[in-house]
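Deliverable D5.2: sample structural annotation.
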Amino acid sequence: MRTRLAPLLAALLACTPVTTDAPPSQPPTSAPPSLPATAAPAPNPTPAPAPQPAPETLEERNVSKSAGTAGGVTVLWPRIIPREIVDDNRGLASALQQQMKRIVEKHLPGRPIDFRPEPERVCPKEGCAGVSVGLLLSRQNQGCLVIALISRPGVSPTKIVPWVGKVQLRSDTVGFREWPESQITVDDYVPCNSLLTTMDAQEPAIAAALQAAAQ
């Protein structure tokens, strides 16, 4: 039996195919996937500060913030000269402005009045919508001089009407928003404590100028 089985086993071994298992192939090495690079968001620009309005000049502060009303009367704050006496004469200027308001109410009854505060003593560059009335107050020691300044509506010349004090006028008018003292020579001041009794004498001249400007 041993002799017979040996050739048979040898034949079987010769017929069996020999296979060699190759080692498993390794996948190709690749870099791990990555997100595409993106640029960092740009920072929001800092908004520029809003421009600040330039401070008003002295001349701009003296311009009325209101043009008044058509058919009405704008009573402006008095111009006080010299400038050095302004602080000491605000009370007197206010009293004169109030007195002028009463004269306007008396001689132009029913007209709306725009009563302007300190320091608004000239109309806007387009002129006032109605008649405008200003005052010039000058003082030398205890002597006072007061001039009424009356204009038609719009960009109009100013009528110079002496109210208190004695003056000579080179011209009784001055251009729109021009200084009236350029046309005035002072002959005499009136004692400031007698203003109320002295100004009544010139009220008819002021009334006539008001009525002419309102026509």
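Annotation notes: The helical segments are 2-15, 58-61, 90-107, 195-198, 203-214. The CA atoms of residues 72 and 111 lie 5 Å apart.
The annotation will be released with the project's public dataset once the embargo ends.
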